[in-house]
Amino acid sequence: FVVKLDPTLEPQWLIGVGAEDGELNEGHTIKYDPTNDLVIFAGYHGSDDLTFYFAESSIGTQFSFVISSVDYGPYILSLDPFDGTPIWLNTLSFIYTEATFTSIDITDSGTVITTGYYSGPVYFDNFYRGIPFPSSQSDTAFYAGFNTADGTLTWARWAGSLFQGQRGNGIDVRGEVAVGVGYFTGS
Q1: pLDDT tens digit string along 20-43?
Q2: In principle, which of 4, 147, 159, 180 could form an S-S bond with 112, CB 3.0–4.6 Å?
Q3: Are 171 and 109 in contact (CB under 8 A)?
Q4: How far is CA 153 from CA 21, 24, 82, 128, in A?
Q5: The organism sits in which domain of life (predicted)?
Q6: Cα 72 to Cα 46: distance, rounded to the nearest angstrom
Q7: Mean local confidence (pLDDT), 69-85
Q8: What is the DSSP string of 58-74?
Q9: How far apart are CA 140 and CA 135, in angstroms?
Q10: Residue 104: closest CA among 115, 88, 90, 93
Q11: How far is the C-alpha of 35 from the C-alpha of 63, rounded, in Å?
Q12: Which has the higher per-residue pLDDT, 169 or 156?
């Protein structure tokens, strides 16, 4: 769920994110971008459409996005801070594999930067038609991805070694400079 609170901690709006079959949806981090839109990243497990259900005050409004996943798949979602309306959504698209975002930050110009790990192959973004990331052999590989302020994927990169684990665990942005942390085993 995502809830907006006023300074006295009274709820202003609440949305739930879920699928008809009740599969797992888990929020991880939320940030404001430079235009004060909310950007969250979360994870989804299942093969059903992901639907955004609003609180009782606006129960008739629903938004549905298809996320092509049959295992745990991360997504980035931009919300209007006024009422929680979805603005854009980007996902990792994959089948029978594991992928997750572990950290997200936003530059002063609104570029959304994510880090995480996956065992692949995967495609970044439901609309990205580039070459998929290769499988990470038998463990996980690190990745970083950049999305512009409107959610368009700019680029995504990966790193990994044979039969060893790598993960991107954190990212921080100051201005237009990003630094990341993680770990790897092997060479």
Answers
A1: 554 556 666 777 777 777 776 666
A2: 147
A3: no
A4: 29, 25, 25, 7
A5: Eukaryota
A6: 7
A7: 71
A8: GTT-EEEE----SSEEE
A9: 9
A10: 115
A11: 22
A12: 156
Using one digit for the tens of pLDDT, what is the confidence trace for 111-136?
A: 777 777 766 555 554 444 444 555 54
Highest mean pLDDT among 1-10, 70-79, 123-132, 165-174: 1-10
Q: Pull the structure tokens for residue 93.
A: 């698209």
Residue 97 CA to residue 49 CA, distance in Å, equals: 18
In sequence order, the 6+-apart residues with CB closer than 8 A to the CB of 76 are 39, 40, 41, 89, 90, 91, 101, 104, 112, 114, 147, 151
| 131 vs 140: which has the higher pLDDT | 140
What is the side-by-side strand order in the sheet with 11-18? 2-5, 11-18, 50-54, 62-65
DSSP E strands, 10-111: 11-18, 25-32, 38-45, 50-54, 62-65, 72-79, 86-93, 98-106
Cα(78)–Cα(84) distance, integer angstroms: 9
Backbone angles phi, psi at 37, to 5 degrees: -75, 150
All residues at 6 or more sequence positions from 183 whose CB lies less than 8 Å from its CB, including other chains: 165, 166, 167, 169
Single-letter code of the amino acid located at 6: D
- Number of residues assigned to the chain: 187
